[in-house]
Amino acid sequence: MLDPAMGMAGDMFSAALIGLGLPTSTVTNAMERAARPLGTAGVWAENVRTKSGPGIRIRVELNTRDTHLSASDARAFLEAAVEEQGLTPPYAGFARCALETLIAAEREAHSGGQLDVGTLQLKPIGLAQTPYSDKAPRQPHRQAKGSFYVELFPELAAGLAGLEEFSHIYVISYLQRSSGYSLTVTPPWQDGETPRTVGLFASRSPNRPSPLGFSLAEVRRIEGNRIYTGPLDLFDGTPVVDIKPHVRTLDETGLGDDGWLANSDHLQLHKSGVAHRHAEEDAVLHEARDILLDIMGAAKALEVLGVALGRVVCLTPVSVGGGNVRFSHGLLPLPAPAVAAILKRHRIPHVAGPVDAELLTPTGAAVLAALQPTWRPRELALDDRVGRWGMGLGTRDLGPVNGLRVCLTKSTPETTPAMSKAGA
């Protein structure tokens, strides 16, 4: 049974499991071994006395090249760790579920643009209308069939005065179907058996930190608040955030070259406007330094303790904290976007507070979801004398004891009709 009255982080959960009587090395060794593909790690646990009783705090020193980790690498590293440590199927399944939960949450947070909340403010001015609902060419042929226009919101129509004197416009759009990004990509615009990997900003991938589209289109006519254009490389309904006139003398669009795309057969598809699919780019786990360590430490501890994963109870509501937190993408309101995605998808009962700090971390939320607990109101908690208790401590002093309490019993009480499985 877990009591996340002060939230939950991955290291707090592993520390709490140590507090149930595990040898410290069971968890710390598993975490250090999981870190090998990332760099070098030192992990140790310390006993701490608090006003709420004894607790365990885990500290990690990880020297790694990057705080970001691609989903494909994370999966490969996790599988290697599962095999090396010989996790049995239930606990290996828990580890995989925790990672996939986190990957899905990161992808959802990015595709919704949530990671930039508070950093920039973009106001849509209208919508692009195109015949592309499922797939779209990134540079459609100028003879592409179908109706193309940008429809501004009516209150902005007066801003179109004089635009009819220009032959072309730039349409700046928000690519709402972006699915996260990686700083290195292997674009499809190339030939040969060994594809070349390039930096994100040397590519035209639509999946970017700020997923903005930039399209040059012919102006065919303007009627009211509609700009009828030549073909647009946008999905139907794409939000448009700005329109700018193309000025030939200044823009010099007749000059330049194709850079590393020169002579590519794939480029010819784009020049010809042939609609085609691209493989989905890899999701990226942000702030990912400790993710694999925390997941493997928890999985190994659960296995050694013999926890029945189908009979986990979590007391509710789960505290998520409040205020703001600074990530690599700026200052964001809590709960963090990935946490919010997990809370929603897995229907986790939660509450803000009780302090203005991040109490439920993305890894903590992913681990909690992967446990698939039965939710029990806190007032119906087991008596402290029923089983062994452990407490995992966070690294910050928050006033109230920053700890996650867990209890291990020989049998879990029957659930009441009010309880429900995560995601049921």
Task: Describe this structure as you would to a colleague.
- This protein has 424 residues and is of the alpha+beta class.
- The protein is 25% helix and 25% strand.
- The protein has nine helices and 21 strands.
- The protein has helices spanning 10-18, 24-34, 71-85, 89-111, 248-251, 265-272, 291-305, 337-345, 362-371, and strands at residues 2-3, 39-50, 53-64, 69-70, 126-129, 149-152, 168-174, 184-185, 198-199, 212-223, 226-229, 239-245, 284-285, 313-316, 318-319, 324-327, 330-333, 350-351, 374-377, 388-393, 403-408.
- The strands form seven sheets. A six-stranded antiparallel beta barrel has the order 5-6-11-10-7-12.
- Strand 10 (212-223) and strand 11 form a beta hairpin.
- Helix 2 (24-34) runs antiparallel to helix 7, helix 3 (71-85) packs antiparallel against helix 4 (89-111) and helix 4 packs across helix 8.
- The radius of gyration is 26 Å and the shape is elongated.
